Amino acid sequence: MSDDKDELPTAGRKPAPAGADDDEPTVEAARRDLFDPQTVDLDGPTRPLTPPPAPEGVTPATAPPPDGVPEMDPPAQPRSGSLLTKRPSSAGVLILVLVALFGFTLVVQLRSNDSDDGLVTARQEDLVRILSDLEARDSRLQSEISALETSQRQLTSGVVGRQAALDEAEKRADELGLLAGTVAGRGPGLRIEIDGVKASAILNTVQELRGAGGEVMQIGAAAGKAVRVVASSYFVDAEGGGIIVDGERLTGPYVLTVIGVPQVMQTALQIPGGVVASVNSGGGSVTLEQRTLVEVTAVREATTLQYARPAS
Predict the structure, then answer these.
(1) What is the pLDDT of residues 183-203, one digit of tens each?
(2) How far is CA 192 from CA 174, 256, 264, in A?
(3) Three-state secondary-structure class, residue 311
(4) Which of 209, 268, 279, 296 could pair with 284 as two cysteines, CB 3.0-4.6 Å apart?
C-alpha cells in the first residue's frame, strides 16, 4: 500500500503533466532552489549562475555587456528635416555663387594692381610729365569738339549756311591734302635728330608722335632728300646700313620734322620706357628741339584711284 503523501501533490505546486519525468525540475522548483540559501553550497567553488531557460515562445532579453565594458548606444538615426538630410535651398546656392564671384573679382583686382608697377616706381617728375601729356590731349580733343559743333551750327543756318559750307569744304580739302601729303605745311612743332638706330626705332617714333597729336611730318637725312610720312609709309632696314622709307634710301643721322604741340610731343617721347629711353639703352642718341615754326616741304603726288568710289 503506497503512501498517500506521495500521491498527493505538494501544496502550492501544480501537478506535473502526465508523462513528465519526475526527475525534471519545474520552473517553480528551479526558482525556489535558486534563491533558497539551503541549496547553495557556500563552501564550494564560485560558479557563475546560469539563468533558467526561457519558456517556449518567449524571446530572451539581450544580455548586458561584461563588467568594465561600456555599453554603447545604438547609432542615432537622422531625423526628418535635419541638416544631414536637408537639401540646400535656392537662396543658399545663390549666396555660394555670389561669394565665389566676389573672390574671383578680388583676385583679378589684386593681379591688376600688381601690373601697375611701372607707374608705382616712376619718379615724381615722370608722373607730372605723363599727367601733363594727358591734359594736353584732353584739351586738344575738346577744341576739336567745339570746332565741329560750330561748323554744324553754321551749316544748318539757311542762306549763310551755303557760304559756310563752301568755306568748310575748302578747309576740309586743305586738311585732307595735308594728311595725304600732297600739300606742304607749316606750324609749331619739333625737330628730332636720331642716330644709331634701325628702322624699327624710327617706326616707333613716328607712331608715338601720331599718338601725341603730330599732324604732319617728314623724315630725311641731315643733308639730303626728305620723304613725306603718311599713313601708308613703311620703314625697312637697308643692306649695308641706313633705312628705306617708301622706296627712298636714307642714312643717319635721321631728322624728323613734325607739326603739332611741341610740349605734348616731347613729353610723349620722354616717358619712362618710351622712345628716348629705348634709343639710349640701345646705344643710339636722340636730340629734341621745340620750335614755334617748322616747315614740312616734302610732298607726294596724288594717287589716282582705279576702283574705289564714294559710297554716297
Answers:
(1) 999 999 999 999 999 999 999
(2) 26, 5, 14
(3) coil
(4) 279
Q: Give yes or no for residue 58 having a pLDDT over 70.
A: no
For residue 240, give the C-alpha cell.
649695308
Containing structural domain, residue 205: 167-296
Cα–Cα distance, 41 to 36 (Å, whole number): 11
Is 221 inside any structural domain? yes
Q: Is residue 209 part of a domain?
A: yes
How far, in Å, are 121, 167, 285 from residue 174 at the CA level?
Answer: 45, 11, 35
Q: 3-class DSSP state for residue 287? A: strand
Q: Is there a domain that residue 27 lies in?
A: no
Residue 255 lies in a domain: yes
pTM: 0.49
For 257, other C-beta atoms within 10 Å of its C-beta total 22
Q: C-alpha grid cell for residue 166?
A: 563752301
- Number of structural domains (the chain) is 1
What are the Cα distances from residue 279, in Å, to 83, 120, 230, 236? Answer: 69, 23, 23, 17
